[in-house]
Write a structure and sequence with these properties.
The protein is α/β, with parallel strands linked by helices and 209 residues long. It is 34% helix and 15% strand. The chain folds into two domains: 2-46 and 101-208, Ribosomal protein L4/L1 (Ribosomal Protein L4, Chain: A, 3-Layer(aba) Sandwich); 51-91, no CATH class.
């Protein structure tokens, strides 16, 4: 699959990039995409919710009333979960929500996500660019030239570029990542995937290995 390389003005440069069909043209596996996206979201959860059980709250341990003859249920402590201020029964405890996923499944998921974007013509190849200083206005202008207004877009770079990242940070629906950090979830969430020309080679080299 060949795509024309555009410049930041949104015009063709005359160059073309060949996208490897073994990465951008496979039969997508929906279940692999589901599992990889689920793992990404699970790993993002803090899992720090915590409630105190009856053994963890402050309070007297004396028996508050006699065992029998009151006509009500027996109670041995003010920390009983049935009382206001008592411990909580089966409350949340800190935990890790992540789970293991095989490397080949994750690789298949990313290939499937990239193939979906390629099949729907939602991939743009942009020539390598940079800003002399962080300029949100310049980044916004480039997005308008590429018809990305009001669209969720992910810009994929070959390597870190601080000025590009800072220029995009305040724009809603825009995310800048390097090729090595591109996840299935981010690919599927974006309406348009914008690949820097040098990032295409990095992506293809990653999957070849």
């Amino acid at each position: 699959m060949e795509l024309a390389v555009l410049n930041i003005q949104g015009k063709e440069t005359g160059r073309k990039v060949n996208l490897d069909d073994s990465i951008f043209g496979i039969e997508p596996n929906d279940h692999a995409i589901y599992l990889d996206s689920k793992q990404f979201l699970a790993n993002s959860r803090q899992g720090t919710s915590k409630s105190k059980q009856r053994g963890e709250i402050a309070g007297s341990t004396r028996k508050i009333k006699r065992q029998k003859g009151t006509g009500t249920a027996r109670a041995g402590s003010i920390k009983n979960p049935l009382f206001r201020g008592g411990g909580r029964v089966f409350g949340p405890q800190p935990r890790f929500y992540g789970f293991k996923l095989n490397k080949k499944v994750k690789q298949l998921a990313r290939k499937s996500a990239l193939s979906y974007k390629a099949s729907t013509n939602n991939i743009i190849v942009l020539e390598d660019f940079s800003f002399e200083a962080p300029k949100t206005k310049e980044f916004l202008k480039m997005g308008n030239n590429l018809n990305l207004t009001d669209k969720k877009s992910v810009f994929v770079l070959a390597e870190q570029n601080k000025n590009i990242y800072l220029s995009s940070r305040n724009l809603q629906g825009v995310e800048v990542v390097i090729a090595g950090e591109l996840s299935t979830y981010k690919i599927m969430k974006a309406s348009t995937l914008v690949l820097a020309e040098s990032a295409v080679d990095v992506l293809q080299a990653t999957f070849e290995n």
